Structures are given as C-alpha cells and as structure tokens.
Amino acid sequence: MQCGDRTVGAIGRLIAACLISISSAALPARSADYSVGNSRPPHLARVEPEITWGNSTSRQLSMGPPGDPISLRAHLESFGVLYSFVYINEILGNVGGGFRQGPIYAGKLEASLTIDFGKLAGVNGLSLFANTFQIHDTGGLRDRSFGRLITVSNIEAFPSTRASEIWIEQKWSSDRFGLRLGQLTADGEFFSADYGKLFLSNDWPTITGANLPAGGPAYPVSTPGVRLRFDPDDSTSALAAVFNGDPGEQRLRNRAGTNFSVDGPPLVMAEVQHRYNQEDAAGLAGSFKLGGYYHFGRFDHLRFDRVGLPLASPSSTGVTRRLGGTSGIYVVAELQLQGGGPEDGITVYTRISASPSDRNLVDRWADGGIVFAGMVPGRPNDKFGASLIYAGIGESARGFDRDMRRLTNDLRPIRSFCATFEVSYQTQIMPGWVVQPDFQYVFKPAGGIVSPFDHTARVRGGPVFGLRSTFLY
To answer: Where are the domains of the chain?
Structure first.
C-alpha cells in the first residue's frame, strides 16, 4: 500500500471511531421546515433522492375533495398513519457513444408508510417507516451503454417488485437523540447534498457504489442495520450507523429486497454536520459535513497476486493478494450565493471523497454543481442548474492496465477517469406533479474501458437527452 493509501485508511478509521456515538440526517443549506428531531417529513424522506419538491405538495391537495373521496387519508393521519405514492417515469436517449445507442423507458412506483405511535398508541417518540418499489424499464443506460460506473439515472435498477426499508425509531430528550433499527439504506442520510438531488445523475456516490460489496446499502438494496442520531443544538448534528456489509447483489441474491442476512462483515459509517443561517436567520445559508466509513471485510489487490507478482504476468499464480478492510473519507458543502427565501436563490454544492487505491477501483471522486431555485418570474417552484461528476480510476487498476500492455502485448487503453456533465430544468405543472427535461454528456465511460469492437480503442462517450415526470400522491 502506498503512503497516500495508508493515510486515507488511517483517517477513515479515525473518523469512524471518533464519531461512532453521534448522529443526524442530511440537511440542505437552508430550509424553513427544519426543527430538531424532524429534519424532513417522514413520508417524503425516500422521495428526495429523485426530486426536490420545494414548495410543491401532494397531487391530492390540487384535486380537492376527489383527492380523498372518503376522507380515509385524513382519518388515518389523525391517528398518526401517513401513506404516500410516488411514480417516476422517464425516457432517456443515448444518441452517440457507449456500447449501443437508442432510447430507453424507465419507471419506478414507490409506496411508503409512516406510523407515529405517539398519536396511535400514546408511545411518544416511537415511529415506524416502510417502503416498497415496483421498478420497470427497457434497459438502463448505465449498464447497457456506459459500463456500469457513473449513474445516468438515479432510478435505474434491476426490474423487480421489491421491499426496501422497514425500521422503527425511538427519539428522546426532546428529539435530540434518535435510535433507528431495522432494514436500512445509507444513501438517504449519509454522504448526500440535498441541492444535488435536482439532477438525474445524482446518486449514491460512485466511490462507494463501485468499491463496496453489492454497491453498499443504497437504492434499491437495503440491509439490516442500526443508526444513532444526536442533535446537540439546532446548528450541529451527527450520525453514526453500523450496517451488514454485504446486502446482496440485487439481480441474484436480493431480487425481492428480503435478504435479511447479517452474515457479512460490518460497514461502519459516521458523519458530523454544521449549519448556519438556517430558517429565518439573516444572511446567506450554508452547511458542511465531514464523514467517513470503514468496511471490515477482505478485498482483492487490484494489481498484484499473493506472492507479489503482477496479476498480468504469465508467471503469476492468478490468485490475488487479499487485503483487510477498506475505508474512505468525504466532505460535503452547500453554500447559498444569493438568497431569495428559505429554499430559493442560487446555491452551489460539492462532495469530495478519497479511498485507498490498492483495493478500490475508484480512489478519488467528486461532484458539484449550481442550482437556481425560484428565479424564473411567475414560476416560483421551478429549479434549474448544472452539475459535474468525476470518478478517478485508482493507481493499482491503472497499473494493471500498464502491466497488461507491457507483459502481454495487450494494447488495451489505460483507464484514467470517467465524468458526467448535466444540465436540468425541473418545472412544476401543478402541485404534486413536476416535469424535468434533462441533458447529459458522458466522458470516458467506465474510465475509458476497451471497446468491444476494437481492443485498442476506448468506448466513446456521448450525449444523453431525457425527460422525466414525477407524480406524488
């Protein structure tokens, strides 16, 4: 392991150890809805990775009495029972580059249920959340066209009807402490930038999705875990969690979301946050997050075998060197450049992360962008912006490519990085329904992998055009 890798690993373990006792949820630069212990409406928590609602509301409200014809929703809500449905569908077209070109259709129906046992049974601070997905598509662009690394659409997944999260949470001390237990995902709370959720390519970061077993505990796969949250004051929060470290590959081992195994080595994640100028405070708002993770499993060295020879060498044993654990550190920042209200104005965001390169395909990763909200006259709920995602291929993986060229006369290109640029506009048609035209350009798919049509050339990048519709009830 190189010195830089040892440093990243040590820092990642240090952060995980130091922060294991504190917790929180991901927060945007500013929000008028935030209060201690209630960072977002529970029934919208799983919606946010795909859509930023702003001031929009459920389609039910715009329908009037026909939206709840027998007052079932209102009656259940009086007992602390909330349910919602979100349907997202989209058409995306890869018009050049990748393994193949052409349009695809994708859709996801999500049903979620939240129960407040304080209202239902007088048990204050106790709640339950559960959600399910029905995922359907004609072939995702990331997997079909661009080599399965950077996300093109954050609803892309194996077509299935599957359970997702189901957990209970107990809060106490005026909601400043919270303990959550059950089938969890990490992407709703850890390593997220709320303003980035405008973009179709914004997802569980590539550096965790590519490096952790089965992509880690993130959409559409959940896994058993426990999460502790602590809010010492209104501007500081922290969270820590322990997950089963191998949630099971969604196509083979976890097709229905019912893999409740705890046999995998644990994955520990921790994050601390600081916010300023929140809610109605004067001045421009902002937030910063520092986090880390450590996986206690064993991982293959990407370049050398068990006796130290290059895996590409004809003399190699072909058995990779096994390494103990992997880790990563990350920072997230969201800064308001111009204010126009609690959720309006101009905001920039970034996420930056690093991991050891000897055992991880992606050893450095960053994304960032700028979002304009409420800036279009007469369209207070519209948002638009631009983003960029970068994933760097690790030194050991690049070294393997060089060894293949040097030792076997394989003229494959040496992988380097992949990136995606996106421009998107989200417009509210009516409360509960938004439509989003989108443009992306993918650079060096999967880091510059070999073309199946020419083993000396890379798969070409190219543009992607799309249109998404999201309906909330």
So the answer is: 3-472
Could you give the CA distance from residue 328 to residue 207 in angstroms, rounded to a whole number?
A: 9
**Continuous segment of H or E residues that includes residue 408:** helix 395-408
Look-up: residue for tokens 């914004």? 202
Per the CB < 8 A criterion, the answer to whether 67 and 134 are in contact is: no
Q: Residues of the chain with pLDDT > 90: what percent?
A: 67
Cβ atoms of 140 and 106 within 8 Å: the answer is yes
Q: Give the per-residue pLDDT at 258.
A: 86
**Cβ atoms of 421 and 377 closer than 8 Å:** no
Residues 383 and 335: their CA atoms lie apart, in Å, by 16
Q: Is 131 helix (H, G, I), strand (E, B) or coil?
A: strand
Please tell me the pTM assigned to this model.
Answer: 0.85
Selection from 144, 166, 129 nearest residue 44 by Cα: 129
**Which residues, in sequence order, are bridge partners of residue 168?**
128, 181
Q: Measured between alpha carbons, how far is 395 from 360 in angstroms, rounded to an integer?
A: 9
Phi and psi at 254, nearest 5°, equal: -145, 55
pLDDT, one tens digit per residue, over 398-455 is: 999 999 999 998 888 999 999 999 999 999 999 899 999 999 999 999 998 888 888 8
C-alpha 410/C-alpha 413 separation (Å) is: 9
CA distances in angstroms from 318 to 308, 395, 410, listed in the order given = 11, 20, 17
CATH topology (fold) of 3-472:
Porin (2.40.160)
Enter the DSSP assignment of 48.
T
Closest CA to 203 of 343, 216, 42, 246: 216
- How far apart CA 421 and CA 463 sit, in angstroms, is 9
